[in-house]
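Researcher: Here's a chain I'd like modeled. Treat it as a single chain, no partners, no ligands.
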Amino acid sequence: MTVVRRFIVAAALAACVPTGAQAQGSPGKGGPDQRVEDEGAQAQGAYRDFHLGASTKSIVELTETRTDDVRLIHERPALMQELRWMPSSYGTARSSPSKGNGVEQIVFSFYENQLSRIAVDYERSRTRGLTDRDIVDELSAVYGATSSSTLASTGDAATGNDSVAARVVARWNGPGYAVVLSRWAYGAAFRLVVESTRLAASARADEARAITLDIQEGPQREAARAKRQQKDKDDAETAARGANKATFRP
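Model: Modeled as a single isolated chain. Structure tokens:
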């Protein structure tokens, strides 16, 4: 690898991988505090400054977004919410590079006010030319050895019927969390998912129940909605009649 090539790869990786990996990938720069941070990521599951199990409010504060940006997915049988964060839209990537630099968007999923899943899409311009191995090596510095992997030897590779589907590149399993790196064949974009095994399993089970409830309660909710609309219309007609009757002159 030429000196220029090494420099390009190093710069791209520094922008995209978790901060713990950046420090471990640079010998002599990671002190005791950094080792504690990396061990914390492995112990409970985290991505950069975002830790699984954190409250919705704390993630809103970290991303400098608003409570109104949090979208309700289901409210029964359990509260499930989602926050879609694009660092460049909020300026966070510039004001706090450790949170959003090199990231196109992060989707935070919450189960009963706890962060259960973090889905990270990296900017394609910052991962262009990088191989699966380049990314996996850096992530392994934070999450440890992979539990499984299927690596392609070159970057930006997409062939045959995989032009749309995502390919799982590698998996990591830790105590109470799982990490999956995948790559979209179209455009070769990388996605990293970090999720709590306990919270994510509960969320999936309750989401299935929520869909069943939606189907079962759909007719009743639609009837109630129609009844409310008719009542609002009747009330408006009554109010208009009263006002016009008082002022009408033949």
